[in-house]
Amino acid sequence: MARSTPGVTRQRLIDEAVRLFSTRGYAETSVADIQAACGLTTGSGALYKHFPSKRALLEEAVRQNMEAVARRAAAATAERPADEDGRAALERMARVVWESLEGDRDLIRIMLREYDGFPDLFERMWEGVLASVYAQGAAWIAAQKELGRADVDDPEAAGAVLLASLTYYPLLRAMIGHTPGGLDPERFLAAWVQHAAATLRLR
């Protein structure tokens, strides 16, 4: 049995729980397992000093994820400097999106594997991703069109298609350990930038 470790924070509990939910599954992970992973005595009930339930802990992890995605999306779609090449802007945004997904890999695995058990919770997560990534991506494309830097008929649809293809790579790697076409990240990214620039007819 693990010894009680003073000063374990809410964030440590969240981090360990997400790791365990991702590797073992939500139902297969007990409160005692989470406490033990934090170095706490398994029967101490220490988790309940911070969270009323295991579900509340997962809800907090999702809330934090949505806030982080919103911040990263805002950074990715920040106003493009006047002298920044269009392809450089696309690559910068793509790397921010990938870094976001890589950082949230465990939570994404939970969402994809446990959706049936928490449809309302993960629907909120999906809506948060849509609002902060897809919508801001479409807004960025529309802004480039207004500035005469891009020529695309439907910025919203173009953004959805481009972001879907971009996010597929890290999602597939997170779920099954393989990548589209077996490509390494830099080859895929270079091809994506070339395709996106041509689609948007960036100047």
Describe the structure.
- By secondary structure, this protein is mostly helical.
- The protein has 8 helices and no strands.
- The protein is elongated.
Count the E strands. 0
Share of helix among residues? 55-70%
Distance between the termini: 63 Å
Work out the oligomeric state of the chains in this entry: single chain
- Apparent shape: elongated
What is the H/E string? HHHHHHHH
The major pleated sheet works out as: none
- As a percent range, the share of strand residues is under 5%
Mean pLDDT: 85
Q: If you compute it from the alpha carbons, what radius of gyration comes out, rounded to the nearest whole angstrom?
A: 20 Å
Uncertain regions spanning at least 5 consecutive residues:
1-6
Secondary-structure content class: mainly alpha
- How many helices? 8
Can you give me a brief rundown of this structure?
The chain has 8 helices and no strands. It has 203 residues and is mainly α.
Topology of helices and strands:
Layout: H1 10-24, H2 31-37, H3 54-76, H4 86-103, H5 105-113, H6 119-146, H7 155-176, H8 185-200
Task: Based on the model shown, name its key terms.
disordered N terminus, 203 residues, 68% helix, 8 helices, mainly alpha
